[in-house]
Amino acid sequence: MRPYITLLRLPFQFLLSPIFLWGYLLADGTWNATLLIAYLSFHLFLYAGGTALNSCYDRDEGPIGGLAHPPPPPTHLLEFSLVWQLIGFVLALAVNLEFAAIYFVMFWMSIAYSHPRLRWKGKPFGALATIMLGQGILPFYAGWVTARGTLQNGAEGLAILGALSATLIIGGMYPLTQIYQLDADAERGDLTSARFLGVNNSFRLALFSISLGGAGAVLIAAIKFSWWEAAGLAIFLCVFLIAVARWRARFYSQTVMQNFKTVMLLYAGVTLPFLAWICIQLVLATFWK
Q1: pTM > 0.85: yes or no
Q2: What CATH number should be reported for the domain holding residue 43?
């Protein structure tokens, strides 16, 4: 079972947590059993099963998101990934129908992203749209419906701004998670977003998109939480953007493995502090408000 579990890339799925929890927090969610079930459904089963499915077709030999040395795909990885995601769908049904519907849509998106018949991953705009929907807007609203049981008020200003801020940040980061594997993607014939943009434009898109999405997140923090939290978030984002710019300056002097380690460190660096802040807010909302 070891290669099957390894290719689920569970630590990487944990780094995707803030988008779902951001939607849950802005919908006034609190710690409860429903949150735990929804979180496990999404991150342990849907995302993880989708990355395993992707490995069935990519057959990576070099580093990939969250995994420096991927093992060869085992014989029944496709069947395993589908059953794994089916288990998550059963859990999704226990949350509510709106949540299960989002899960269902994202499941088929993951197949379209990876399967050779459609292979949206190999189409730069299709890939970027898939990621911005599948790791941005849809998980945000999955968190929202987990908290409220419905999409009620999901089209109001704060919710839309929250979804867009998350989507812009994840969309900006996406090409950066590919630029260290341009040669491998070229060998497969995939015109990924990073290959289409090139290294310099990938960094330009990242800096612009993360800045714009970050500004939206800072505005939400100022409106819904406090001015000092908004100021702290703004400082944090500035430090992160400087780190991305410094990586851009040394990208060509680094090896593939060094660039892989850099982007994973940056991903963790932007994710974990934000995740910690969200968790603190949920604790406060549950026990002190």
Answers
A1: yes
A2: 1.10.600
